[in-house]
Amino acid sequence: MSKHVFITGGGGLIGLTLARDLVSHGYKITLFDLAEQFSRRQREVDELVASGAVSIAIGTIMDRWAVTLAAQGCDSAVHLAAMLGVKRTEDNRLLCMDINVNGTDNVLNACVQNRIEHVILASSSEVYGEPTYNPVHEGVETKGKTVYAVSKLATEELVKGYHQIHPDLNYTIVRFFNTYGEGQVAQFVVSKFVKRVLDGKNPQVYGDGSQTRSYCHVNDTVEGLRAILERPVALNRVFNIGNSVEKFTLKEVAQKVIDLVAPDKGLSVEIVPFEESDRTPEREIITRYCDNSLAVKELGLNPKVSLDEGIRRIAASVIHEDWADR
Length: 326
What we know:
By secondary structure, this protein is of the alpha/beta class. The protein has helices at residues 13-24, 35-40, 42-50, 64-70, 86-91, 93-113, 147-165, 189-198, 218-230, 250-261, 293-299, 307-315; strands spanning 4-8, 28-33, 54-58, 76-79, 118-124, 170-176, 179-180, 204-206, 212-213, 216-217, 237-241, 248-249, 270-272, 287-288. The chain has a domain at 4-182 and 215-244 and 290-304: Rossmann fold, CATH 3.40.50.720. Helices cover 40% and strands 17% of the residues. The longest helix is centred in the first third of the chain and has 21 residues, at 93-113.
């Protein structure tokens, strides 16, 4: 079993939560990310470092040499770093492809150079586009409906290609379904709704609000990642990581936030037409929710945090308005 894990995107929501979980299970960790990412959650970072089991490496995955140096001494890697966000990626298509594809190539090269035995690649439910079947299982065809989805599909093929040439580097591809949690930037839907309601503003839903998703709290996502590190059955396979128990429309999520966070403030869900938003009908996914039965069977995944509880936790946390500087 791996005992020293290299985590890119280590200052983000999943990275820091995973680090805390792994440290509690006896792992050593190297977190790699931008300085701005770490500084946003400095108290948590300091606590992890004080444990004696976590080291911090500052850098970008676009720096091939920096990634390679930072990964020294590790035997597994979890590659979470990526360019995210609908408007952000659509407005910066080349940059999105550069960071997500070439950055992943740098990380995989670092794994080979350091004889790392297993890399977990963070992909996304976005690779299914508007799925032909719901709930979405791993065998549903993939579609590149957005530049972000295309970049993630490319990284999936990249990691498979590295394994072909370097068979000692095993991989697991995880397709996250709407991971959310406390500390997440308010460019993601649940945190955005919570922040607006805390600020006394109506949560805004784009389109008609019927878009249906399943949401997975970061603690449950991390449970799946640790199981992948510990179970050989996960090697060289693809897993959906999400919560199959609950699914909601965006309008339902927004109303939940009002009811749980500010029920007496007179707020209501505000419907915003696509033409008045940063989204377009052409790239919007109407219905996509998770079938996690493979992860339940093979990894023992058992999501426990309800959306109601997750919303309460976000409301009690610090919510940053925008992304950290690249």
